[in-house]
Structure formats: C-alpha cells, structure tokens
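Let us practice reading a record.
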Amino acid sequence: MGWSSMTVESIPVKAAPKSLVWQGDKLVSGCGRRWGRDGVERKAAFAWSFPFDAGITSVSAPYSALYQERGTEGVLLERERVVRELDRSDYQADNYDYPLALGSLGDGREVVVHCPDEYNVLQIEDAASGERLTAGRRDPQDVFHSRLSLSPDGRYLLAVGWLWHPFGTAMVYDTALALTDPATLDGEGLLPGPAVMNGEVTAGCWLDVDRLVLATTGTGTESWGNKEEPALPPRHLGVWSMSEGRWLHRTPIADAEPGVLLLPRGDQVISLLGHPRLLDTATGRLVAEWPEVGVPVKTTCFGVSHVPSPVAALHPDGTRLAVAQAESIALITLP
C-alpha cells in the first residue's frame, strides 16, 4: 500500500525489523530489508537471525550493525558485506543494553563507538579499517556505558548508562579531544555530574549540534544542585546547551515516564514507552500521542528483566515516524 495523508498507516512485514532508518523516502533495516513508497518489502540476498536481536544503522553512511542487546556478540556491515565481528566484555552483559553508536566525526571519518574490551572503557574506531583511534593509557571510572549517540556534527558523544546502585546517569565527551587524549573519555566529561545526579537519567538525544535533551524517571536522590549548578529533577525533560554550559529548560514530563528512546524533531522529542508520544522540550507538554501504536514498555537500559528496546525512525524532514511492530511497520504522519 502507498502512503497517504492518513494519521497512521501500516506496512505488513513477515518479521519485525531489528532496526529502521530512512534513506530518502525508503525505509531500510540493518539486515538489508527495505520498503519503498509502495510498501512492498524488498529483501537482501541474505538474512540474519539468531543470535542477533537488535540493530543500528548509520544515517550518514552505508554501515549498520546487528548485535545481541543483552549479549556480547555483534557484526558490522557495509550494506550486505560483513566488515568485521564486534564484541564487548561479558561482565554484567546480560543486565544492560549493548553500548554501540555509528556515525561520522567532524572530519567526516565514519566511526564505530563501543566498549570492546571493558564495560567502562569507550573506544572510537575507524569503521572501514577497524583502526582504534583512541588507543592509549586509560584510567576509567566505574560506570556502565550503554546508550551511545554522536551529535549531528560528530563533535560530541553522549553516553547514557548507569552507576552501581543501579542509578541511571549521562555523560558527554569531546570526540576531537578524545582522539588526541583518549583518557578524556574516562572522566566526568563535559556535563557536570551534579547537574544530572538528582533525577535518574534514562534517555537522551541531540536536538542539534549544541542542544542536548535528557529525560529523568520518577525516582531520584536528594538534591545535588545548587544556585550555580542546578540539577535536573526527577521526571523532567532538560535541554542543555553545550556552548553555554547550562540548562536552557527544565520542565516536568506531564503524563508518562520517558522510556529509553527519544527521537529529536526541532524543539520537540518523540518518546516511546508503551506507545509514541510527542513532547515539547521547552514546556514538557504532550503535543500528541498514538496509543494504538504499541511499543515495548522499557523504562531503563539496565535491569535483570530484559525488555527489547523500541525500534523507530523519524524521517529527516520530521513529517513521518516509522515504528516497528510484531507484524507491521506503523507509519505515523506527525502534526
């Protein structure tokens, strides 16, 4: 079926996609499956199954990766060609999501960001060659890095993870600085710890090259903030400016926990917890929601009970949201 102006449409699929990304007006999954405007699925010459149950696709290059979300194994692909196998430490691997990001740095170099050796040691590697760009002496702190994302210009790396309580937190690093001094990936980073240690951070994304959105869940510690360095309270959305080094907005989330996945859309974010919600980052207001489009209810990137992460992709022009379902891909026309 084709796409029209209806609010929600559906593309039937034989198996739920492990990842989704828009390439023009086509939807592409990490294992080579694609859907055009006619809604017809076109398969790659190969198919991946066990043991991989999750995936990620670069928006800037033909690289994708399939991996075990709560395991240690993965594979990096260039279109349908296997580039190399990926791995991570097995320490607590069954208790938190695989840390992995694909994208480009400021110099245009395509990279893989992950934790191939130790749970608390981030590494940046050249995607094509596998060359480790952050080799050197390291002194990591005791933090489990999990959900990784590069800023649109590749300058910054966001790591949403957890400390041993467990308690969700977030850190931001300068990638250019890390290439000259890898040990800068081991410290607190550019986001002051007290600013994010009040509410428990469960999700984050980049609104643009400067602004970062973080979401906190409904539990938190005693206030760590002060007049000079205010904290992000529990159950809030916060917009942080990297250039100004401060919160631009800190607003309560009106109707639901944020979940683990946020997708940026201008000054709004799409939150996926049970179903998609469109939130205004300046006010925390619920702009729209689609309860008929079900997604997993996943509140943190860690925990003994594993709930699969939602799989969704926002079209670059911000008009359409694709959400993977068990037997279909829901296509939502956004307001």
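A brief commentary: Residues 1-40+309-335 form one domain.
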